[in-house]
Design a protein that fits this description.
The chain is mainly α. Helices cover 81% and strands 0% of the residues. The longest helix has 36 residues.
Length: 181
């Protein structure tokens, strides 16, 4: 009987050691998976975000874009990712204040990127057409014209001027005109 107790005790210690070994292995594998997440390139992050957005996994797309910006703040895709966050907030979530915040970060953090003028234009558009803040819309469009008139396509410049005139004259806004056509 003592031999049976000793044998059972050895099996329990062996089982306990096995459980500890399994836990350690799972922890190591988890750490490896987590560390691999950080090895994605900016391009891989951006592509993954687009895939998620197209699959209507909007929250996942935003998380991926934020990780891209966090891990690659100096990559040219960071400004594009920040702009896309604004677009998602405006078009998918319809959260216009968060869209303004996202676009503002492009202008503030990536002022020399090609997405800065578009972001400033979009800020004016959102203020005018969604938040009904004519003063901030005027400020954004005027700043867009002043800072980026040499860099943007004529279409955007003329659109900003038309929006500005509409705000000053009380004429219909661009969105109202587009809805009629």
């Amino acid at each position: 009987m003592i031999a049976d107790v000793n044998s059972a005790s050895k099996k329990m210690r062996s089982t306990s050691k096995m459980k500890k070994l399994i836990i350690i292995c799972i922890s190591v594998i988890s750490l490896m998976i987590i560390s691999c997440e950080g090895t994605k390139t900016a391009e891989e992050y951006f592509t993954a975000a687009e895939v998620e957005r197209n699959a209507k996994n909007i929250k996942a797309s935003l998380d991926i874009l934020e990780n891209l910006i966090k891990n690659y703040p100096d990559n040219s895709l960071a400004s594009r990712a920040q702009f896309l966050i604004g677009d998602i907030q405006m078009n998918d979530y319809r959260d216009f204040n968060k869209a303004i915040d996202a676009y503002n970060l492009v202008v503030k953090n990536y002022s020399s990127s090609p997405h800065a003028p578009n972001s400033l234009f979009m800020m004016g558009y959102v203020y005018a057409n969604h938040l009904n803040d004519k003063d901030l819309a005027r400020t954004a469009f005027q700043r867009f014209i002043n800072e980026y008139s040499e860099e943007v396509e004529e279409y955007f410049l003329e659109s900003a001027k038309a929006e500005l005139r509409s705000l000053e004259e009380g004429a219909p806004l661009l969105e109202d005109i587009l809805q009629k056509n």
